[in-house]
Structures are given as C-alpha cells and as structure tokens.
Design a protein that fits this description.
Length: about 300
C-alpha cells in the first residue's frame, strides 16, 4: 500500500477575499440602483443583464471558497478526490471553490483502555489497562491511509497492551528481572515505543502512556497473595539470618581480640547457639542468670 505524506496546501487569507466579496456585492447593488434610475439604451440593458448574472455567480464562487480553521486544527484540501495538501494556518482561509476541505483535529487525545485479561510471562492470568495520550502528526496518513483512524488507535492500543503484558512477569519477589509491577518506567517506555511503531502507518504519535490498572485475575488473586506473603516471609527470614550470623561473628571476634573471655569449642558453639536464638527468635528472649561457673 502506497503511503500518503502530508504536504502544505496552497491557500490564502480569507480576510482579503472577504474584502473582494464585499466590493463585488457593493458593485452589484450600485449597478441595480443606477440602472433603476435611468432610461437605458439597448447596450446598457445588455451590460446590466450581464452584470447581474456574472456578479452573483462570482459572489457565490467566492463564498464557497471560505472555511475556518481553529487553533490546533487542520484542513486537508482535495481536488476531485485527489489529495492536494494540508492547511494548518488558523483563522479565516480561502481556496478555490471547487476544492474540497476535510477538517481534522491535531490536538492531544486521551484514551483509557478497557481492562484486559492477559497471561503474563509465567502464564499467570492478570488484568491490565493503560492510559494513552496521542495526537495526529500526519493528517494525510490519518485521513487517507486508514479507514477510521480513531478506531484504529483503539484496536492498536489493545494489541500493544496485550503484547507488553505477556512479555514480562507480573512480579518478582527477588527483584532480579524486569516486572510489570516493579519496573514502571521501563515498561511504560517500551509500551510507548510499541504504540508508536504500530500507529506510524496512520500518522499517529503517542506522547505519553502508562499502566493504570494492574492486578492478578480474580480466580488466582487469593492464591497469589498467599504466595507473595510466603515469599516475603522467606526473604525476611533470609535477611534476618544473614544479619544474625554477621553479628555473632563480630561478637566472637571482638571477645577474642580483647581477651574478654577464653572459650573452648564446646562453649563457643553454645554461645553461638544462644545468640542465634536471641537474634532470630520472633519473641523476646527470657534471660537466665548463671550463678555458678561458666561450665556449670
């Protein structure tokens, strides 16, 4: 399919042509008034008949060439179905009366997509929706290369969101890979790039986009919540044990370096066990006072 590219159309200021229109209207009125107050000859009658035919025809043709363009609006100019260019100059404009004018907005548009059910990278069903800010950047492509560019945008947004949703996992408790929930900037940037690639054929540019809804599908939401809780507990326990081992190692090292107490292997193991219980326990430890010796 041949791609249509926008180009600048010829047009002129409508205010200048409005002055011409008013001048011709005044001339027509003057001719009628002058003719009515005289006894014309045959040549004057012929001239009058010619003027009252030609001047109204000229007025009609000039009037048909007027059109208005508002800020951030454009008009595609056609000649018997052939594209002749686009006029983006705001205000009152004028082109030849046999030219067609198709107005199109180039303002920013905002679309919030429907909630879609998609399987993420791991096969989990999720619900996902996005917000997209788009605008027409090439009026010729939007009008002549696709049938309905607004419907085209809606369909391509749905396709792009489905593609992005299936490209990444919903979540990763260990934060070792890109996820839909944890990597918003990267996912949004990739979604925008995907949309611009898909909408380029329609002359549409996406200025901003982002996910507005992201959740597990209702049928697995409860199970995935319990899984997240379990993974969070495991991760917290892992960090707690790592910290406790470091603290125990530090305590034993400092006791040895400062010669606070000499411990054999058995008592060292007992101290390590007690410290680990105190540091890793969920409840506060109850101290036990030893009134004897260290080995009793």
């Amino acid at each position: 399919m041949a791609s249509t590219r926008e180009r600048t159309a010829w047009s002129t200021s409508g205010y200048l042509m409005l002055l011409v229109f008013l001048a011709l209207a005044f001339l027509l009125i003057l001719r009628v008034v002058t003719f009515a107050g005289t006894e014309p000859s045959d040549s004057q009658v012929a001239g009058f008949l010619g003027s009252i035919v030609l001047l109204p025809l000229a007025l009609v043709l000039i009037a048909k060439g007027f059109y208005m363009i508002q800020p951030n609006q454009a008009a595609a100019i056609t000649l018997f179905g052939a594209y002749r260019g686009t006029d983006r100059q705001p205000g009152l404009r004028w082109v030849w009366p046999w030219m067609g004018k198709i107005r199109i907005s180039v303002r920013a548009n905002n679309i919030v997509s429907e909630k879609l059910k998609v399987n993420d990278l791991r096969g989990n069903p999720i619900e996902i929706a996005s917000n997209v800010v788009w605008r027409v950047s090439d009026t010729a492509q939007a009008l002549f290369d696709v049938d309905d560019y607004k419907a085209f945008v809606v369909v391509q947004i749905e396709s792009a969101v489905r593609s992005i949703g299936s490209r990444y996992p919903y979540d990763d408790i260990e934060h070792q890979e890109v996820t839909l929930r944890g990597s918003h900037d990267q996912v949004n940037a990739e979604l925008r790039e995907e949309l611009n690639s898909r909408l380029a054929v329609a002359g549409i540019t996406v200025d901003d986009c982002g996910l507005t809804h992201l959740a597990y599908a209702p049928e697995i939401a409860g199970a995935m919540l319990r899984r997240q809780q379990a993974e969070a507990v495991i991760s917290a326990r892992k960090k707690l044990v790592e910290g406790a081992v470091t603290m125990v190692e530090m305590a034993l090292t400092q006791l040895s370096e400062k010669n606070v107490v000499e411990l054999d292997d058995e008592r060292r193991a007992t101290m390590v066990s007690n410290l680990m219980v105190v540091l890793c326990g969920e409840r506060e430890a109850q101290p036990v006072l030893n009134t004897g010796t260290l080995y009793q």
